Amino acid sequence: MLGGVSEASWDRSRCSVAGTLGVVGEKWSLLVLREAFFGVRRFADFQRLLRIPKAVLSDRLATLVEQGILARVPYQAEGERQRHEYRLTTKGRDLYPTLVALMQWGDTYLADGPAPLELRHQDCGAPVHLELRCEAGHAVEGPRAVRPVRATPVG
Amino acid sequence: MLGGVSEASWDRSRCSVAGTLGVVGEKWSLLVLREAFFGVRRFADFQRLLRIPKAVLSDRLATLVEQGILARVPYQAEGERQRHEYRLTTKGRDLYPTLVALMQWGDTYLADGPAPLELRHQDCGAPVHLELRCEAGHAVEGPRAVRPVRATPVG
DNA sequence: ATGTCAGGTTCGTCAAGTGAACCCAGGAGT
DNA sequence: ACTCCTGGGTTCACTTGACGAACCTGACAT
Question: Is A7 close to B124, i.e. CB distance below 8 A?
Answer without folding.
Answer: no
